[in-house]
């Protein structure tokens, strides 16, 4: 062995590169540079789009089992819900059929009783459909404008209804439109009937509690009125047909020092959001006119002679 080779270090078994700390520093700086460049100049956007396009089929395939499981779960839950809805619909149909048969029987019985008692037929009301155009400009009143007027034979005083009950009354008629005063207007009054007790009253518009409210006034403090009572039109005013839903009693306030009870009601109709309404023909022509008042009896003196006023 030559002597010169003894002073040399042996070659490394593995080829060594930069240290781990230097690699971490370089990679961190590169990552920071790429993040700043991507946020400012969007340099990685094309690469991101390419990777997203290439990896989309893989993602789609990976998500298919999840979608299939969710679809199966939704299918079975929808199937059970549909079956329950079908059963409920059959039950409601049976109840409606029973009620329809009862209504037919009651109608025939009512006609027979009216013929037996020689009573006149109930008033029949016909009407036309209309649409609410906009609210009236007066902020202190509860009025709406509908798209039917004189050209559609709309008359002043006609009742106006929606799908839930009485909405108001036509107060002004123009050639193309009409003004409807809602039942919650403070100047509007409507005769009502308590369907539970048969007591009559007059409901007025009242906005003291909230925007859409009514008050059943002039009822005695000990009057039989309960929360939830349904108030319908009584039909004694010759304007509204009898039996139309008007409101439900919301609160009954009885005070010892007051003669009348404060009975607050909620309208049955959608007075704040009605869009389609039904205008009934006035019932004035179908209701008999009031008899003329009798002239006052002539005054006579003791001799029986007529004394001129």
| Strand order in the largest sheet | 1-2-5-4-3-12
Kindly give the count of domains: 2
Tally the helices.
2
Number of strands: 14
Radius of gyration: 41 Å
Strand residue percentage: 25-35%
- Name of the CATH superfamily of the largest domain: Rod shape-determining protein MreC, domain 2
**CATH-scheme architecture of the largest domain:** Beta Barrel
CATH class of the largest domain: Mainly Beta
SSE topology string: HHEEEEEEEEEEEEEE
What does this structure look like?
The structure is a single chain. The chain has two domains: 25-121; 127-280, Thrombin, subunit H, CATH 2.40.10.350. The strands form three sheets. Strands 1-2-5-4-3-12 form a six-stranded antiparallel beta barrel. The chain has a six-stranded antiparallel β-barrel with strand order 6-7-8-11-10-9. Strands 13-14 form a two-stranded antiparallel ribbon. The protein is built from two helices and 14 strands; from the N terminus they run ααββββββββββββββ. By secondary structure, it is α+β, with helices and mostly antiparallel strands. It is elongated.
Structure characteristics:
309 residues; Thrombin, subunit H; six-stranded antiparallel barrel; six-stranded antiparallel beta barrel
């Amino acid at each position: 062995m030559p002597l010169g080779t003894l002073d040399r270090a042996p070659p490394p078994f593995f080829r060594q590169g930069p240290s781990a700390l230097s690699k971490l520093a370089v990679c961190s700086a590169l990552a920071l540079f790429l993040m700043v460049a991507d946020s400012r100049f969007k340099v990685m956007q094309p690469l991101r789009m390419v990777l997203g396009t290439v990896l989309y089929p893989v993602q789609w395939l990976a998500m298919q089992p999840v979608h299939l499981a969710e679809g199966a779960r939704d299918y079975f839950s929808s199937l059970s819900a549909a079956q329950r809805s079908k059963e409920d619909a059959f039950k409601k149909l049976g109840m409606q059929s029973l009620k329809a048969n009862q209504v037919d029987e009651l109608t025939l019985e009512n006609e027979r009783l009216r013929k037996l008692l020689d009573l006149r037929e109930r008033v029949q009301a016909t009407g036309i459909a209309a649409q609410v155009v906009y609210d009236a400009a007066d902020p202190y009143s509860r009025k709406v404008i509908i798209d039917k007027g004189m050209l559609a034979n709309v008359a002043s005083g006609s009742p106006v209804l929606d799908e839930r009950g009485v909405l108001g009354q036509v107060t002004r008629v123009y050639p193309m439109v009409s003004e409807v005063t809602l039942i919650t207007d403070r100047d509007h009054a409507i005769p009502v009937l308590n369907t539970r007790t048969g007591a009559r009253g007059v409901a007025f518009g009242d906005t003291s509690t909230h925007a859409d409210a009514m008050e059943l006034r002039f009822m005695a403090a000990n009057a039989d009125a309960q929360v939830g009572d349904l108030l319908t039109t009584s039909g004694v005013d010759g304007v509204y047909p009898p039996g139309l839903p008007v409101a439900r009693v919301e609160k009954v306030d009885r005070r010892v020092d007051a003669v009348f009870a404060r009975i607050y009601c909620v309208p049955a109709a959608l007075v704040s959001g009605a869009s389609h309404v039904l205008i009934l023909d006035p019932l004035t022509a179908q209701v008999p006119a009031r008899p003329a008042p009798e002239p006052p009896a002539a005054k006579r003196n003791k001799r029986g002679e007529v004394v001129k006023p």
